[in-house]
Amino acid sequence: MSDKPPVAKKVPLERTHHGDTVVDEYAWLLKKDDPDTIAYLEAENAYTQEMTGHLQDLQETIFKEIKGRTLETDLSVPTRKGAWWYYSRTEEGKQYGIQCRVAADGDSPPKLEPGTSLPGEQVILDGNELAGDSPFFSMGTSAVSPDGTKLAYSTDFSGDERFTLRFKDLETGDVLPDEIPGVFYGGAWSADGSTFFYTTVDEAWRPYRIHRHRLGSTDDVVVYQEDDERFWVSIGLTRSQRYLVLASGSKITSEVRVLDAATPEGEFAVVRPRQTGVEYALEHAGDRFLVLHNDGGAVNFELTTAPLDDPGSWTPLIEHRDDTRLLDVDAFKDFVSVHFRRDGLTGVRILPGDGGEPYEISFPEPLYDVAPTGNAEFETSRLRLSYTSMVTPPSVYDYDLRSRELILLKQRVVLGGYDPSDYEQFREWATAPDGTRVPISIVVRKDTSRPAPTLLYGYGSYESSIDPYFSVARLSLLDRGFVFAIAHVRGGGEMGRRWYEDGKLTRKKNTFTDFVACARHLKAEGWSDKIIARGGSAGGLLVGAVANLAPEEFAGIVAEVPFVDALNTILDPSLPLTVTEWDEWGDPLHDPEVYAYMKTYSPYENVDGRTYPPILATTSLNDTRVLYHEPAKWIARLRATAQGGPFLLKTEMGAGHGGRSGRYDAWREEAFALSWILDRVGVTE
Q1: pTM over 0.85
Q2: Residue ranges of the Peptidase S9A N-terminal domain (predicted)?
């Protein structure tokens, strides 16, 4: 192998939009089945392997650290649904989880010990048996029928997120002959378990049809087709198991239909017709529906009630507040929980069903993330919560509504002598160029000398929030003297809906300037010297944009499955997801102002001859969300045009958007990235 990088051939392709002619010399890389494309990607992999060969020992050390801190034989906290407790477990040496259940008795989950099985345990699915020798394996759904007798599950063996749906009789253990290829994630059972509703995608990978499958039948019926290319569809069953909920939504608009789950062959009824800019979601709560919506200027959403026979008539229950973003609502027989966000942190509000005063559950740490999770049972006096912080491993609590007590059921075991008191977490605020204060979450070992090398992570799109979270792999950085920080930039949802709106469409550049402001703040306040930027998918767009905006601020950039050819992708409605993305980025195909604006920040369009920091881009050949050609083109143009580097591309030739599927493979992938990050700042021991 040579230490000289591959040189991508140039095949100039001219395109003209709104009077502007651009030349894309690497567009040929879109041809996935072209032998030249595969040969180029393999040459890039060989070069990356050569350039990182000196890190193999460090990679192996970090892999062993991750593995050594992980309780490989472990299990989840059981979740009650009907007559059963459901849980999953992992076993040492096995890549995938095993789904199990035991008969239920009482509200308290059974006590399970890793490596042992309870009397009467039933294995529902073993991911390792399903995966066999396949190098990739993923599940799209696993749904037990309301009566607990049947299982719907779907599998993907290539990473393209096209699943094959199958059904299993849980009483006999037999897999039924019904088999449906080309299915999307999710699905929902009818009340009697005779019928399963599932989703399929169109050529642009947009989930657009809901099908009804009666077990034993081959005549599946399309019950709904969404013809507006901006909208996705999904289907679910309410926690009460009374209603099927068919939701159709774009990035900014919702329309919901409901159907009595006892009559699966009936007609879905529209709750309220779609109105551009109005989003709403519906939950069944006994004698009424609960509707969370943003109509009438409720930017951060308000919670309303609606009669069962008139679900489009909404009466306020929790009115809109400028300082609190309502995220979700969960209804139970005797209470309602509301998940919200305030001051950059999440929280949970309880609405007692007896008319008692609503209240919020309190938590002791200054930074944390909490959310209701695994609450499958409608009639219960407990609320299951997930909780974590940057120093507290993921924890599962039951909140007892009677005693108002948080009961710790499980905290992820971190082996190797991990002590949370060795680490500290902080909240800092950077000032953006327009004066906006941008929150930063920070974690560091208490004995770390500062300023220190820093990994700065960001995302900033789709109102997705990167809340404070714990990471076993991150300890390999912190214990080597790193600071880890999350830049909660605009475009995310950390500070409410307006925070998101100020970082999208023609305000997208706020996302990038916020991130640079966070980097400069960390240096100015003595936290950081050398900073590595890291982001994935839309976060890859973020770090690609700041590479053009302020390359001097960063000692390296890790861009994972990065959306770096944003303008060309959003101009091409034949590519997966493009039309649905116009509400997020704008429509450059038909709007010249959007075109001009996107052209000023799209990373691929703005590579020039300046000096860039070293860049590691990773991607997957079968990714259907951010296609492999985006980072491939970007790296090719950087290498041909820019100074600095080196610029590396690593392509998984048999994986999808989430990378390699097995946990050991994923750990090795992370060890590779972390060793590169450490090498960039000279920490290789």
Answers
A1: yes
A2: 5-412
Closest CA to 556 of 47, 66, 51: 51
Between CA 138 and CA 126 the distance in angstroms is 12
Single-letter amino acid code for the residue at 264: P
Q: Strand ranges (DSSP E) for 472-586?
A: 483-487, 528-536, 556-560
CA distance 405 to 382: 10
Q: How far is CA 393 from the centre of its chain?
A: 19
Pairing of strands 483-487, 452-458: parallel
In Å, how far are 29, 125, 148, 174, 395 from 85, measured between CA atoms?
A: 49, 15, 11, 21, 19
* Distance separating the N- and C-terminal Cα atoms of the chain: 26
Return the active site residues: 537, 623, 657
Local structure of residue 482 (DSSP, 8 states): -
| pLDDT tens profile 293-338 | 999 999 999 999 999 999 999 999 999 999 999 999 999 999 999 9
* Of the candidates 574, 626, 462, 580, the residue with the CA atom closest to the CA atom of residue 208: 580
With beta carbons less than 8 A apart as the criterion, state whether 118 and 97 touch: no
Structural contact between residues 244 and 259, judged by C-beta atoms closer than 8 angstroms:
yes
- 141 DSSP β-pair partners: 154
C-beta of residue 271 within 8 angstroms of C-beta of residue 312 = yes
pLDDT at 477 > cutoff 50: yes
3-class DSSP state for residue 77? Answer: coil
Helix (H, G, I), strand (E, B) or coil at 667: helix
CA angle 616, 620, 622 (to 5 degrees): 165
**Residue written as token pair 């830049």:** 487
The span from the CA of 593 to the CA of 505, in Å, is: 11
- The first and second tokens of residue 498, run together, are 């307006």
Q: For the purposes of burial, counting CB atoms within 10 Å of the CB of 70, is it exposed (0-12), middle (13-18) or buried (19 or more)?
A: buried
Question: Helix and strand tally (H, E) in the chain?
Answer: 12, 41
Sign of CA dihedral 133, 138, 141, 144: positive
pLDDT of res. 235: 98
DSSP-assigned states of every residue in 595-630: HHHHHTT-GGGG--SSEE--EEEEEETT-SSS-THH
Range of weakest confidence among 80-89, 266-275, 287-296, 436-445? 80-89
Question: What DSSP string describes 80-110?
Answer: EETTEEEEEEE-TT-SS-EEEEEE--SSSPP
Q: Which residues have CB under 8 Å from 63's CB, separation 6+?
A: 667, 668, 671
